Amino acid sequence: MHEFIPPATRFAPLPERFAMKRGGVLHGARVAYETFGQPSAAGDNVVLLLTGLSPDAHAASSPDDPAPGWWESMLGPGKPIDTDQWHVICVNSLGGCQGSTGPASRDPATGQPYRLGFPELSIEDIADAAANTVRHLGFDRLACVVGASMGGMSALALLARHPDLARSHISISAAAYSLPYSIAIRSLQREAIRSDPLWNDGQYLPERYPERGMLTARKIGMTTYRSAREWERRFGRERSGIGDAAFGLEFAVEFYLDHHARRFVRRFDPNSYLYLSRSMDWFDLGELCGGSTAEALARLRVDQALVIGTETDILFPLHQQREIADGLRAGGADVEFLALESDLGHDAFLADLDSFGPPAAKFLSAL
Amino acid sequence: MHEFIPPATRFAPLPERFAMKRGGVLHGARVAYETFGQPSAAGDNVVLLLTGLSPDAHAASSPDDPAPGWWESMLGPGKPIDTDQWHVICVNSLGGCQGSTGPASRDPATGQPYRLGFPELSIEDIADAAANTVRHLGFDRLACVVGASMGGMSALALLARHPDLARSHISISAAAYSLPYSIAIRSLQREAIRSDPLWNDGQYLPERYPERGMLTARKIGMTTYRSAREWERRFGRERSGIGDAAFGLEFAVEFYLDHHARRFVRRFDPNSYLYLSRSMDWFDLGELCGGSTAEALARLRVDQALVIGTETDILFPLHQQREIADGLRAGGADVEFLALESDLGHDAFLADLDSFGPPAAKFLSAL
């Protein structure tokens, strides 16, 4: 598969031997990242941004790459995460396929892509790789670690495993562990990919990409990203085509799913999708810290935290964000918890910046 | 595919030429049904039961077939739908594959199974076929038409197209039209089936059944039948296996999905699944009656109705049952609306009989 690495992306080497939590070692691995804004002389204005499953390191436009990033409205000069003030590092998750070492990368031991030979990936590995990147760039203290969705899990893992690295945290639509509904959804996404004969146990050929499986996987995901209420308001029973005898697309909502899924596939390595997806199922902060979720959260050392979720999120339901807020507060952090009423569900942090921007800006300016 | 027709199932012929709503004609079609309890001399104790997508006509055990039926706890002597009092007719939906004419049936014009040559199926056709069956059995007036899930749609269509047939209605977890979330879920289920190479555009061979696609389709459905809350309570993060490098099953919820999906496939014709699924997407009572949903419901002629839904149903959300209740009431019916708090979601009518039984019994005994 052709790698889609944004042009301003740079690379931080991991230690020559990078041990993975569940076993296995990566040799000569790297993490792709982009930076936005300038570090202060004291290096005390660094914000680390950890992403969801699919985004790359190009969170926003910059002088080196003017193309809009995936969090363009949130990040930049004068924006809620104000790069006139903050030096933001956004990393592509380890195991991803947009520049960081992952299943599509060359295994130095064989000279061939890892594919399913990539070691089992955990959220903790993603967190360790991100922490390594921060240190490689010369910083040993973050003003804030920001994580949304899977990135919120990675941020919690980072706080647990690198307790002195960050002094504050913004947690967005995240969770301290995966619940069975989200595990089930991801299991079905993986099943869709694995069922595509072209996937070929991971050995798919670039010219025979398992598009069918990836499309279905993405569409299954999309049924959990917004909310039934938003779709009802937006699509209702609108038709965009004529139903045919072969059960093709007819309703607007079907075309919407298809359109967005097609924009996603072929840019993403199916094996990387499988690894990242499974890492989320496995994540359990309590298990990681050897105690209950509440105990594990209370042990995390941050001074301030902002925890945001939306009432309509079915993938990372609101009670999981409340749990993070309560746990961090029990540990002594000064925590603000925001339950947004947006009908944009899990995607609200990407689609409803009017709701997410101001509290994030206020939180950061008070640091 | 081998047809799984329960042993006590009987067959009612449809008119030699049965015209379908969206075009096309069935010749010599039939409807599979079972009856429970005895008709009164006056024939005034007849209850018609219309089913969801997958159940057959064997709703409960009977002298002719002691095997438990799909609504065993609800139907029988002394049960909520008391067959000591009521003569219950349960029909297998037209287009189904458990005895009624459907895509797996032989097309008399070719001598071969219809497969995708079956005419486009609508909920209205299912309703017409059921009404025909009632009349074939010698009844021109039903004490009650009971419909759950898709069967509730069929019941509304029957009330609209056969206005003098039923004097009361029990509507369970139903809807007057499909919303985009449920359309999306069903579209993905169909995509999973259609993507299975063994489906072969409907021409699958009995010995090469598209099991993979049907399993995925059923599992996608199952993510909408219960509720995230029930799964959280029931499975949490329990493991039932060991995760392997090939992304096999590990969490209890994954095994649950797989186990139940395997019980379903191979007993159901994939083409039938596609037709029934699409008929639900198309259903829109307002469109059928040429007006708004509220107007269409208010035009239905029933004296009494009981409308039940559950707060956790994501496939047929509660506001759709409230809409049915409000609409029937506006038309002059004496309507009881029950919003159950069960965490069993759309499946509550199958799994939480303690909640559904008593109100149904009370409603029927007051007729």
From TrEMBL, chains A, B:
Pathway linked to the protein: Amino-acid biosynthesis; L-cysteine biosynthesis; L-cysteine from L-serine: step 1/2
MF terms (GO), sorted A to Z: homoserine O-acetyltransferase activity
Identification of the protein by name: Serine O-succinyltransferase
HAMAP family hit by this protein: MetX_acyltransf
The species this protein was found in: Amycolatopsis halotolerans
Important for acyl-CoA specificity, annotated site positions: R186
Localization, UniProt: Cytoplasm
Keywords: Acyltransferase, Amino-acid biosynthesis, Cysteine biosynthesis, Cytoplasm, Transferase
Binding site for substrate: R218, D347
Catalytic activity: succinyl-CoA + L-serine = O-succinyl-L-serine + CoA
